[in-house]
Amino acid sequence: MKITIIGGGNMGGATARGLSQGAVAPEDITVSDPSQATLESLSQFCDKIKTTSDNLSATRNADIVIVAVKPWLVESVLTGILPALDLNRQLLVMIAAGVDFAHIRSYVHNDSCPLFRIIPNTAIAIRESLTLMSVDKTKPEETELIRKLFDNLGHTVLIEERLMTEGTAVTSCGIAYAFQYIKAAMQGAIELGFYPKTAQEMIDQTIVGAIRLMEANHSIPDEEIYKVCTPGGVTIKGLNEMAAKGFDDAVISGLKKAAGR
After folding, report:
1. Single pTM value for the model
2. Which of 93, 124, 165, 216 could form an S-S bond across to 129 if both were Cys, CB 3.0 to 4.6 Å?
3. Cα separation of 149 and 125, whole Å?
4. Backbone angles phi, psi at 35, to 5 degrees
5. Is the dihedral of CA 26, 29, 31, 36 positive or negative?
6. Would you say 114 and 136 are in contact if contact means Cβ atoms under 8 Å apart?
7. CB-based contacts of 20: which residues, under 8 Å, 6+ apart?
């Protein structure tokens, strides 16, 4: 299985790096990018990954073509590779926020080929992304192939395309919101008397532990929250104060704003 990635920037480069670490033979991955510095960085990471600045040649021999470019470049990139794109045998995967299937089909002039939209988050760089996937006119085995491919870079969730914008707010934007909580908790811990490095160490592991606990118990947040809340105790007092200051409302409002609601 030969994979070509058009665009070697943050998402495309991270995808290539992740896939080369066991999911796909590195020599079966080709990355095309106009920046020589970007290509050299990939070669330094793994010299078996093929690099080029020729999108057409990179596309021609691929089984899967992943286009990972800025949304405003999608039309020109797809139009440019169209002479080499054979959608009767190749699978086209798009990593570009906000570019829907209708627009993609208009660019490739094909109303029936299988298409994939993928939205990772920045944790793809360490193979821990929550990746959203939508499909259009795909066969079950094709969907499973691409899902498994991106599961090597974290965890993939299949959603309807109509929820892509909302999903992006929750996961792709959402990683920044998680960092914002960590930042705020650190500021609070420092005010309580801890040095910054100690505060971050404490909070980071607390977050990791909370996630692992829910996974291990197959539980939801409320179940784990109330295990910690003893009657009249400090935990419920802290939670009630956060609620009174608008914590829940701020999170919900932020997600809705990011989703354009």
Report:
1. 0.90
2. 124
3. 15
4. -90, 120
5. positive
6. yes
7. 26, 29, 45, 46, 48, 49
